[in-house]
């Protein structure tokens, strides 16, 4: 017996409530409010429970949430659980075939709606991969035992930006979703952290720059709108600051009106509070007379201090990492050397005590300059 249109629509809405619960719970570092039983009970009578791509990803998101809440630091058990979840993710189909937005009929159409649904599923798939491996990427430093997680997180971040760009093209930039813009921002920060870190490739030759620039261009468009988008405005400022360090530009300039604190003239330090990554401190100092100065592209970056979280553990968050060296400028001629050092500090985002009333805001600086519209 076919169900009525109203019942079908109600089930469709319920599905999206479940998806939103898992998405927001993972994003905010909270326990999810709806268990997998809701996914198991979506079938009627003797029907096989639904196993749509989004249902599978919701279950996996629940597993990542459980891992985040169970472990307060990286342990062998945490790594094994991460590997198990990774195997589940790798067995799912990311719906790689998506129509080119430029060849779809203009305006509202079933084809565009289907392409949009596929792109959002792909984005969610790669976001889960990135967030699954992000703690290990931040712990990796120069340790090769976490290299798989680092590479997986970076590759997923690249795919996230590709999906984000396609969604923007598909909707002719009329789509408004601050959390989506924030996802693209975190993907770009992940790529920049890799470039700045001790394991980063040659900064000026990195193949990730086009993807980073794409996100910056999109955020710039949103930031220049009326009224200006807070997420885009602050995200763009953070990316510009990190880019200026990575490309050996002049001392990064920041504007407190963009949500980025100004540089301390005495210590020449900028601190950036970024959700999921924690506090990023950028130190600038000028040194001269260093021997053996060579071209940048001929010499890989050398650590100036402690490797990225070499001996640290995640306290209660994704973004906890100890000091990380960033980069050394290798000048082509004799002269002062501009040194930038990147340090990553903790951010209260890994997990929560159930008594939320006693805790501060879960996202650093969210009230003042991060408005995700949640």
UniProtKB/TrEMBL annotation:
It comes from the Eukaryota. CDD domains: fungal_TF_MHR (cd12148). Keywords: Nucleus, Transcription, Transcription regulation. This is Zn(II)2Cys6 transcription factor. It comes from Aspergillus flavus (strain ATCC 200026 / FGSC A1120 / IAM 13836 / NRRL 3357 / JCM 12722 / SRRC 167).
